[in-house]
Structure formats: structure tokens, C-alpha cells
Design brief:
Number of strands: 7
Radius of gyration: 24 Å
Strand content: 15-25%
Strand order of the largest sheet: 2-3-6-5
Structural class: alpha+beta
Number of domains: 2
Order of helices and strands: HHEEHEEHEEEHHH
Helix content: 40-55%
Number of helices: 7
Distance between the termini: 64 Å
Shape: elongated
Largest sheet: 4 strands, antiparallel
Length: 239
């Protein structure tokens, strides 16, 4: 936690990028403060969605809404037109509730089912299934839902961080640039300044993302003896 990172410090970082004077408080009665408050939440969510930020990453189980097998079983014993049994998303076996605090779903996986018994098998399963999901509204409850083919699914996502003191330095800077882009025309009406700010923002955010991704390593799945044999073209025999 860094108490020096506040909404005001982010406002002023953004204002400095477009050569506008500082504000002293979010409640300040000035055009700059008003515009910062107007665009801040949109810029914050956009910055969070731009990258799988380490400081905002969470891993949690998903809450099951419905599954195709239960829906079929219930339909057999009830009216075929009773739609309350069909809380499912087409082409997927399971429907889960989309986390309310999620701004970017990164992957969906099942950590309990390994492809083979070697260590890291569950990680291999997770990586192999991370793209097999779809986000849309539940056909029954009208809540945001996630469809996938994994039972007992967990997810890894970017949480909607609201506490500025929890932001890391790279994200604070990235958010400052994104907010500056939103503020440039409303506060300066300078199209050339906006173009220059946009180019600098893109360059900085790409560098921040590169550094963020460099703070972890991927665990490589181990091959089973069968896979080693298959990939090497057969068993090696010594006589």
C-alpha cells in the first residue's frame, strides 16, 4: 500500500501531461477538477482492462448457474416449454455467474483435473482450456454469465480496483496517460497536443505492460514417458 498514490496525484499527473495546472482536491470548484472527475472512472477501467496487471489479479471459483445435463434431465420430467430449466448458453456445457467485480476475464480453468499424473499437469490443463469460454447474458436471469465446458471451473481475472493506495507505480503512470488523453480536448482543444499525448501514452503503456508481464514465469508442463517416446520417434534401446 502506498498512501502517496491518491486520486489527486493521478489527476495532477494527467494534467501535467497536457500542460494544465494542478488541482488541490477532487472536490475543488474548477473546470480541471470537474473534467478529471467526469473522465476518471472510465480511464481507470480502461487502464485496468489494458493489461493483466499483477496487483489487480485474483483467482476464484466460479458460481454455477446451470449445466446442460441437468437442463435435459429436468426437461424430461417437466414441461418441454418450461424455460426456467434452461439457464445455459448455447454450445457450452456449463453456465457460470460472471464475477461482479471483474473488468477483464483472463482465463477459465479446472485445477482439479490433470491431463497426466506428472507435476504441473493441472497447470497444463489450465493453459490448454483458458480460451474456451464466452461471456454473455444468462437467458434466464438476465445476469452477466460465462459459458464454458469445464466443470468446477475457476477463473483468473482483473478485479475492479477502486483504492488508489493499492495501485502499483506502473499502473498509476499508465492511468495518468489514459486520463490525459480523455482530458486533452475538453481542457485544451489542442488536436496536435492530443496526437502527441496519444503517441507518448501508447509507448509508455506498452513498456509498462512489458515490465508487468516480465514479473512472472510460466511453469512448463512435463512430458509423460509416452509423450517423450512419441515426440522422439520411438524408444531408444541399448544392446
Amino acid at each position: 500500500m502506498d498512501a502517496s498514490i491518491t486520486k489527486v496525484s493521478i489527476f495532477n499527473k494527467a494534467l501535467s501531461h497536457i500542460k494544465v495546472g494542478n488541482v488541490s482536491s477532487p472536490a475543488e470548484q474548477s473546470e480541471a477538477a470537474f473534467k478529471c472527475n467526469l473522465f476518471y472512472d472510465c480511464a481507470r477501467r480502461s487502464a485496468l482492462r489494458a493489461c493483466d496487471w499483477r496487483f489487480a489479479r485474483v483467482q476464484r471459483p466460479l458460481t454455477l448457474l446451470g449445466d446442460i445435463n441437468t437442463a435435459i434431465a429436468n426437461q424430461i420430467s417437466a414441461s418441454p416449454l418450461n424455460s426456467k430449466y434452461w439457464d445455459i448458453i448455447d454450445q457450452f456445457e456449463f453456465t457460470y455467474l460472471y464475477p461482479a467485480d471483474c473488468v477483464r476475464m483472463v482465463k477459465v480453468y479446472n485445477p482439479y483435473h490433470a491431463i497426466h499424473p506428472e507435476p504441473y499437469g493441472d497447470r497444463h490443463m489450465a493453459h490448454g482450456k483458458e480460451d474456451f469460454f464466452e461471456i454473455m447474458r444468462s437467458p434466464v436471469t438476465n445476469q452477466m454469465a460465462l459459458g464454458c465446458n469445464l466443470e468446477r471451473a475457476r477463473c483468473h481475472y482483473t478485479v475492479n480496483m477502486l483504492d488508489e493506495s493499492q495501485f502499483d507505480d506502473m499502473f498509476q503512470d499508465a492511468l495518468g496517460w489514459m486520463l490525459a488523453l480523455e482530458l486533452c480536448i475538453p481542457l485544451t482543444a489542442d488536436q496536435s497536443l492530443m496526437s502527441a499525448t496519444g503517441a507518448l501514452a501508447e509507448k509508455f503503456i506498452e513498456e509498462a505492460m512489458r515490465k508487468n508481464y516480465g514479473e512472472s514465469t510460466e511453469v512448463q508442463p512435463r512430458e509423460s514417458p509416452y509423450e517423450q517416446c512419441r515426440n522422439n520417434g520411438g524408444w531408444d534401446h541399448e544392446y
